[in-house]
Amino acid sequence: MAPPPGRERGGNAPTDVHSGAPSDIVLLPLRGQVIFPYIRGSFEIPKKTFEDICDYLERTEATSIGTIAAKPTKKGSSSELYEVGTMCRLISHAAV
C-alpha cells in the first residue's frame, strides 16, 4: 500500500508535495484571522512589518508570502502557531 500523499513511508514527517514552492518565504502569523487558499482577502499589519515585507519582496523579487494563524492564548502567554498555513500570491499592497 502506498503512503498517503505528503508522507514518507513508515513515518509521519511531511515531505515537499509542492516542489514549486519557494524554500525561503516570509511567514506572517495572523491573530483572529485565517486566510484560505483560492480566496481573495485582505488583512492589516503594523506599518513596520509592512515595510519590512515590502523590502524583502523587492530585494528577492518574490511575489508570495505565507500566512499562518496564531492559536488563541490566555492573557500573558506567548502565542503558538498552527502547523498548516496558506501560501499567498500578492496581487497588490498599499500602506493605509
TrEMBL record:
<dbReference type="InterPro" id="IPR015947">
    <property type="entry name" value="PUA-like_sf"/>
</dbReference>
<feature type="region of interest" description="Disordered">
    <location>
        <begin position="1"/>
        <end position="20"/>
    </location>
</feature>
<protein>
    <recommendedName>
        <fullName>Lon N-terminal domain-containing protein</fullName>
    </recommendedName>
</protein>
<feature type="compositionally biased region" description="Basic and acidic residues">
    <location>
        <begin position="1"/>
        <end position="10"/>
    </location>
</feature>
<dbReference type="InterPro" id="IPR046336">
    <property type="entry name" value="Lon_prtase_N_sf"/>
</dbReference>
